[in-house]
Design brief:
265 residues; alpha/beta; 9 helices
């Protein structure tokens, strides 16, 4: 087996849990390109180079990566001291609604879920698949909601795809603004950087502290470990799936993705 890159970010920023989603806002700092154009160009180039089934569940490299990622989300949402059925949830960077099924399984109600994404074709796809949910095309840097509108703010691998610091900061500020006092921000993202790759940027603890006000506005509650670093996780998922979760438990430094929970004071 080739040497495994243990400190590597997902080979795709959305890996599996939200592989069909978009970056929701903008991905990088290229001033000449519109945000949606930059996002679309990134995913087109990614799947053209790696294949359309790169993150499909039919790909044996993906299955246990997906299970681990979903397990981290289930544990995180299940730990919240709220009644999901009575909670308003905003999915920032919802893409075509790939997160909805898991949110519904956790007892969040479709009439209390709102999804926003920058790319109109992603929103159109979400509306076709899930017409009972409120989907909006919107720039996450300026969310079209009043302050303190939601009990839970959710994102899945969005910040990984946003390498421009000012854009990421604007989105983080908006997420904090629309979250009610006592509400929760759920960040499902990749923790480990991929050396030399400038198209993605991990949501490390250091970056988390820069983006979110963890002193005056928010408190860090806990984190939940998820998927392994992709070279290792994909290898185990294909070749030795029975060892996947044992490796994650015995060698926690190989886990590259997880969930941060923040509560608004």
């Amino acid at each position: 087996m080739r040497e495994i890159e243990t400190l590597a970010l997902a080979e795709s920023p959305r890996e599996q849990f939200n592989a069909a989603g978009s970056a929701a806002a903008v991905m990088n700092s290229t001033p000449a390109a519109a945000p949606a154009d930059v996002t679309a160009a990134y995913y087109e180039a990614y799947y053209r180079g790696r294949g359309a089934d790169r993150n499909s569940l039919s790909n044996p490299e993906v299955l246990f990566q997906s299970l681990a990622m979903e397990a981290s989300v289930i544990r995180a949402l299940g730990s919240l001291p709220i009644d999901p059925a009575d909670s308003r949830l905003l999915d920032v960077g919802c893409g075509d609604g790939a997160n909805l099924f898991q949110l519904l399984r956790m007892r969040f109600q479709s009439d209390k879920i709102v999804g926003v994404d920058l790319m109109p074709e992603r929103i159109a796809g979400a509306q076709r698949l899930h017409p009972g949910v409120e989907w909006r095309q919107a720039d996450a840097r300026k969310l079209p909601f009043a302050s303190q509108s939601f009990d839970v703010i959710f994102e899945s691998t969005m910040f990984t795809t946003i390498v421009d610091d000012s854009t990421a900061q604007a989105i983080a500020n908006e997420m904090q603004r629309v979250c009610r006092t006592g509400g929760w921000i759920v960040l499902v993202d990749w923790w480990m950087p991929k050396p030399g790759d400038t198209t993605v940027k991990a949501l490390t603890r250091q970056r988390l502290r820069r983006l979110f006000d963890l002193k005056a506005t928010l408190r860090f509650d806990k984190q939940f470990a998820g998927a392994l670093a992709p070279p290792l996780g994909r290898f185990l998922s294909r070749r030795c799936p029975a060892a996947y979760f044992a490796v994650a438990a015995v060698f926690p430094f190989t886990v590259a993705q997880g969930v941060y929970l923040l509560q608004k004071k």
